[in-house]
Amino acid sequence: MKQAGFFDVEERLARLSGLGDQLEAFSRTVDFEVFRPDLEQALAYSDGSKGGRPPFDPVLMFKILVIQTLNNLSDERTEYLINDRLSFMRFLGLGLSDRVPDAKTVWLFRERLTQAGAIEGLFNRFDTTLRSAGYLPMSGQILDATLVAAPKQRNTNAEKADLRAGRIPEDWQDKPSKLSHKDRHARWTLKFTKAKRQDDGTIPSTDLAIPFFGYKSHVSIDRKYRFIRKWKTTDAAASDGARLREGLLDKTNTASSVWADTAYRSKANEDFMEKQGFVSKVHRKKPHLKPMPLHIQRSNAGKSVIRSRVEHVFADQKSQMGLFVRTVGITRATMRIGLANIVYNMRRFLFLERIKAAG
User: Fold this and answer.
1) Residue 3 to residue 126: CA distance in whole angstroms
2) What number of helices (H) and strands (E) belong to the chain?
3) pTM (2 decimals)?
């Protein structure tokens, strides 16, 4: 078998570029160096005076998290594919003979960022990049939330009651290994979906309620460019509407309109938005035991055309990135969802820059 040479590798990389390497496009469009100050501050590595193997470059490690998020990879699978794929190596700036971070190193890097609470700063750093590129929050904002699955927990009714009350079940307290594998923050809820038409053509009068375990991702996007501008992570059972008053509205948007579905319609929210200078475009609810007035139907239909744009964000994260929480606890879930939000904004930025270049 012929041994691969330098020019053989270059030829293969050129072919990957011709086929449309998404990671190469990321490298051209996103300046990952902007994340370095936040990464170095969160990691707080020593100056190396005490010796030992130097840590991997933090920007390289952050780019590994981007690869993970884009492809929904475990740490072990990430290590394997970096060693296996030329496109991954090129994105990371690694040669065939360079040392590749192993799965444990990737886990430790992400864990240090998680415990330092760095994800919000990293998200805001890239949002500043978007604004500097001319993508200011414009034309109002749209709010929504989606459920994000986590590994199901097999707990007794008594254990569930303790968790809901914020207590650690007694049987877990002297078993640290068991406690570390139990997610005390994720919750069960019911996911409602429209009933499907039956074989005889009829549609059941009630929708389907499917049990769901995990977390909930709340976002606010700007109407003009559809970037995520504000976000929050909660357990799956948390109310959507209450989050509106917890920092989910973007006051820097150049327009004051706020679109959202009926879950966000409440007197508290309407009063809050009016006091903060926002104009509510939130869907109105159907009157109890009465038909929906025609003018409200028409108003809601017009709002739906705009509000539905936020659903494309969640569809992209779940279909393209396979968004799923593999970890335990809301702190790590926040890190996972925050990374998905950053990567979504990167993909959206890449898309808009391509349109701009083509025009």
Assistant:
1) 42
2) 15, 6
3) 0.89
